[in-house]
Amino acid sequence: MNIACCYFPTQTILLDDNSRFLETMNVSLGKENVIKSFTNPDEVINYLTKNTNEPFTRRCLHRPEEQQINHRIIDVEVDAIVKEVYNPKRFMENTVIVIDYAMPSMHGLDVCQALRHLPIKKIMLTGEADDKIAVQAFNQGLIHKFMRKGGPSALIASTILELQKKYFVDQSTIVIDSLTRNMDYPPSCLDDPIFMQFFNDFCDKQQYTEFYLLDPMGSFLFLDEHANPTFLMVKDEDGMQEGFEMADLSDTPISKDLLISLQNKEKLLYFFDKAEQKSDPKTWGQYVHVAKKLTGKDNYYYAITSDPNLYNIQRDKILSYGDYLRSL
Length: 328
What we know:
By secondary structure, the chain is α/β, with parallel strands linked by helices.
């Protein structure tokens, strides 16, 4: 799967005229998902029409209206991506809806048609006799998945998670394309299959709750459910050389061992913001991390730190996912 420029847990919508079925689904799915249920199709259409906000990526694009592939050389404000972490309403974003096909007042496909203009991903629950209709709806792009009603709740939960991730990947495409194709930005590893595999493996292994792109090269901030941060810092050959030269040319003497490790690309120098970069070079040792090499289309160097006090993340202004769940 391609890389998303950010990801955070979101709200799932359930639509079924059977309130007892919705209660059962809420119990089985609510352990891993935030659920909002509806029994009336008109109500859910009205709710999503009013409560589907501008996709998160639009807030970091200067010309988001240019959707044609050959017009995607646009300006991206990467800093705006990580600022989403301070948005307390981010977990209320609607990304997936689960719709029953057979409802007396309105068929599930009619609901999907009414919501077709929205980016929300659609799962339709069908009976055995409705498979042919579901396949046709999938081929027409009206739905993204169809499943047998009454199937295992674990399968529905995993499908919801799959489509939530797909939502963020799809919304990130224009951002990633702009960062990797625009000559005004330095070369990026975000479209390198080797780095993409490394990144997805890293996410699966660590099981972080949310993540945000930090720079055009491919560094990310990860948060767990308590908003404890982990930084994945990435540089290419030029970035490593730039870090060495910055330390070597500073007015304040840097230790010889530190300079040698930067020159040999054994460590990388990483600043989260400009204030850290302008700090006293005597303190730069805390921003130097052991580097590991990853070879893809180019050579990349990465480091990982989970020191919550190292970089300027305002944790007191972050609503963690754990606190959000408790507030519900």
